[in-house]
Amino acid sequence: MLKPSMRDKKRYVAVEKNKKDIIKIFKKWYGLKNFADSNLKKMRESNNVEVYRVKPQYVERFRVACMLANKRIFLVSGTLKSLRKRMKEEHGYDI
Fold first, then answer.
1. What sections of 39-79 are H helices per DSSP?
2. Is residue 72 in some structural domain?
3. What CATH number should be reported for the domain holding residue 59?
4. Residues 95, 92: Cα–Cα separation, whole Å
5. Which of 3, 12, 40, 73 to pair with 91, CA 20 to 30 A apart?
6. 58 vs 4, residue with greater confidence
7. Residue 23 structural domain
8. Assigned domain for 38 exists
9. How many domains does one find in the chain?
10. At what angle do helices 22-38 and 59-68 cross, to 10 degrees?
11. Is residue 20 domain-resident?
């Protein structure tokens, strides 16, 4: 098991839900190498919100991919717990 200091850092991004697949757009726009390096993964999905996990170095690229998919980004956070709390307080969504 790795020490916490040696593990990859993560950011969780809450995005508006729509029909376009952000992962396919990210792959197409940035290529498979950047997709693999970003560790982009869909974590949760609720009625109006999807939560994705991405490395901090790739958050800006993920924002561009969301813009290309016409998806609105609500919040970016370091933990799921704080993302859930802030989404409820600021936007009224329960993840």
1. 59-68
2. yes
3. 3.30.70.3250
4. 10
5. 40
6. 58
7. 9-91
8. yes
9. 1
10. 170
11. yes
Distance CA 95, CA 89 (A): 12
* Interacting residues of 47 by C-beta distance below 8 A, sequence separation 6+: 17, 93
Integer Cα distance of 35 and 17 in angstroms: 20
Question: Which of 63, 52, 68 is closest to 20 using CA atoms?
Answer: 68
Please report the pLDDT score of residue 95 as a whole number: 85
Contacts of 15 (CB under 8 A, 6+ apart): 22, 49, 50, 51, 52, 66, 71, 72, 73, 74
Query: What is the structure's pLDDT at 4?
Result: 87
| Distances, alpha carbon 21 to alpha carbons 78, 90, 94, in Å | 23, 25, 22
Per-residue pLDDT reduced to its tens digit, 7-54: 889 999 999 998 999 999 999 999 999 999 999 999 999 989 999 999
